[in-house]
Amino acid sequence: MNRIRYNLMTWLSILSLMLVITPRLNAEDWPIEPPKEAPTDWGPVSLNFEEIDYPWPVQYLELRRYGEKMLMAYMDIPPEGRANGKVVFWQHGHNFYSEPYEDSFRRLVAAGFRVIAVDRIGYGKSSKPLIPYNLNFVSANMKALMDSLGVDKVAAVGHSMGGMVVSRFSMLYPESVSHVAMVNQIGLTDLRQSRSWRDPLATDPSVPSYQSILRGHTRYYPTTWPPQHLEYVRRQYGQTLSGDYPRFARVRAMVSDILYNDPVVYDWQHINTKTLVIGGEEDDLADDFVARVQHVHSELPNSALHLYPGIGHNPQVEIPEQFHADLIRFMESDPDEPASEWR
């Protein structure tokens, strides 16, 4: 068994001597509008989030890839109350990791699902090696964790870049997936057709400003900014203050290169699993998002399309009640019935 559990409290007691830890604030403590400048009390945040508490125990899967030992952090969250016997494997977006989806996980386990949520290699509490990242690597790690946990089949849910992950995983391991949900997936085009390749490590990555990080996050919400989201801006900005940030920036550049080097636009036609393409119509991360996802829907042999007018990239935050009710209803549906009959 290659799963190993670390004593996080021991880590935190040691790291508290080395780090200035800024505790996470409650939602009501954040300002209604994000500040124009980074607050002066925002200190460095470690690259592996040692000082960030996750809501459930964090375990680690030991992997050996590209000749290196790597640790992939994950939470294995049991259902509450009456279990329905189904497992959800959740894949996070590129600017995130598993912990920000806590509300989604609480709603899923309350509905009887077991939830497996990872920080992919390169993110969150997982190892951050400087390697050539690709979706086959990510999918193989996903399958390795399922095998380690003795899980044969999952409902695969992916948000943003996580949608790319579940696309590739479902194509490579169709026998391991009962349902697929692509939530505001990115990677909707083959970027190689619009620009030439650029070496992600040709120059030293620049350090993003607070304002540029904030702009990236405000794009997720076309109407109302949720004050609690500022916590994730704080964390991302805090990492730029770490002495190890230059190396981390190179890792981020290599991970981001997946969008160019490993498109999933040729995967969808090979995914026969029952699939839901779902998300907010006002997604500012893609040009002509609605037309793009309609194309995804048309490419998938067995899919349903469900979009929310006026909602942006994070429907799980903007309309949590409606979004999660729809998602749960889909995952509770018979996997052998056509997706077109889901509603």
The overall pLDDT, averaged over residues, is 92
First CA to last CA: what distance?
42 Å
Instruction: Give helix % range.
Output: 25-40%
Structural class designation: alpha/beta
Main sheet: strands, sense, barrel: 9 strands, mixed
Put simply, the count of helices is: 11
The count of DSSP E runs of length 2 or more, i.e. the number of strands, is: 9
Low-confidence stretches: 1-23
The largest sheet has its strands arranged as 1-2-3-5-4-6-7-8-9
Shape: globular
Strand content: 15-25%
What is the CA-based Rg, rounded?
19 Å
Q: What order do the helices and strands follow?
A: EHEEEHEHEHEHHHHEHEHH
Could you give a short description of this structure?
The protein has eleven helices and nine strands.
Describe the protein in words:
The chain has helices at 8-15, 102-110, 135-149, 161-172, 210-218, 230-240, 245-256, 258-261, 289-299, 315-318, 320-331; strands at residues 3-4, 59-65, 68-77, 87-91, 114-118, 154-159, 177-183, 274-280, 303-308. The protein has a 9-stranded mixed beta sheet with strand order 1-2-3-5-4-6-7-8-9, sandwiched between helices. The protein contains 11 helices and 9 strands. The termini are far apart. With 343 residues, it is α/β, with parallel strands linked by helices. 31% of the residues lie in helices and 16% in strands.
